[in-house]
User: What shape does this take?
Amino acid sequence: MSTRRHQGGQPRLPIPVLALAGVATAFFALPLVGLLWRAPWSHAWSYLSDDDALTALRLSMICSLWATLLSIIFGIPLAWLLARVDFLGRGIVRALCTMSMVLPPVVGGVALFFALGRRGLVGQYLDRWFGLRLPFTTAGVVVAQTFVAMPFLVITVEAALRQLDDRFEDASRTLGASRWYTFRRVVLPGIRPALVAGSVLAWARALGEFGATITFAGNFPGTTRTMPLAVYLALETNPEEAIVLALVLMTISFAVLVGLRDRWFTRTGRHAPTVLT
Amino acid sequence: MTRAPLLAISGLGLMGFLAASCGSSHTSTATVAPTAVIEAAAAQGPTTVAQTTQVTGDLVVFAASSLTKAFTEIGDAFEAANPGASVTFNFAGSSDLVTQITQGAPADVFVSADESNMKKLIDADEATGIPVIVAKNTFEIIVEKGDPKGVASVAGLANPDVIVVLCADTVPCGKGAATILRSANVTVTPKSLEDKVTGVVAKVTAGEADAGVVYVTDVAAAGDKASGIEIPADQNVISNYPIVVTKSATNASSAQSFVAFVAGSAGRAILARYGFLAP
Assistant: This one.
């Protein structure tokens, strides 16, 4: 995810590499061009000013940001544990925590039922003791999105932590800094690019989440119908509307991803000099 | 050049969004090695269903997801009766299937769960001939085994303590449910509006929802995980399942034979076993 720039000039890539990169770019760009090509521009506005669309968009934004926040709060400690602590069964824990990336999201949603649903392993006690029910609630959407999104942050941050020279942490500690201070002032700044990249990936995944949401949280306007669900439902009746809604979602993601400047994704060098190898 | 990594990141983000839209339909195949079928058929002797024309080759059938179990069995029976024919199914929501066919997916036969989606295919000039109704379906209230919440009737769905899940009114099962509630004069506040009937069934069988309105065949398919409450005929809705050979069929004669097989006695018997009503 980081680039290495040669001093004072552009890197010169061999032609085959350039050609393959070009094909890859076209592979991602063409479907988007296809959508733009088929979009009903003349009455796009009428679909957009529709209350249901705006409600779905607002819900998508709120839920995906919550899911990203939860992923950061729980994901960084998890990544740190996986990167720094050598414990028995670490491989198993890592596999468990990234399993939802390969699980079909619909299966993930069913699994969440069995864990957190009204009759679920833990959910039945949440219901009985606290009257807390996640299915069919906005909180349920956040849970489903976090379930599929957090691994993207965890693996990105873990990889960065492994590359971070742990002698900086040792130095900080020998100079009298507490573990917490070292974590905040040495480790976190060192992994900032990966943290940003991981958060963006997790957010993008949460924003596009469909299968786990519709299975676990259901599909109701205002509470659980996020943009991807609205798009899917619109496809059933009005494909034109679906295209417009999809384009809105894509424009927003695109703006955020382009808006993140290159430097967020590159090493600052100040906190983590690349003295590795 | 310096923008290259940025483009790559953007691509990744969009991938997440695009990935969300690819879990909608699934394909299941019911192919049998032709030689094995020939041997089996030769051992059995003449089959009950007489075939006047030679039916051979691969046949692709796009069928509504509510037909999954029944049509998988019909496909096996068709292959057994026609050594040399091989049927592959694509089961999904009727409107998804229409979209797939109009976008060029290779289908020989299309079976819809309602007439409006069949009309969409005809309007798109993708169907040949007049569709034949091969089955009918009707609605029931699906509840947890034994109806512990005491829903008992359509009116019971209005009870605020009962978690009701319905289909969205954009899909056939949702249109049916809306009509039923209207004719029973019952107002229901559902917790979720599912995009397909299996979503309703799954939420009731998982115990998250207490009741929903689904097809009789869905209640039958759920087996002992759910119970059905009959809806009186004067409130109920009957939906038709039309079948047609597509215009783009590469194997039109075999496709016609398949349609005749489904509409014939063998097909009807199998459909009836899964709870479908005779046309």
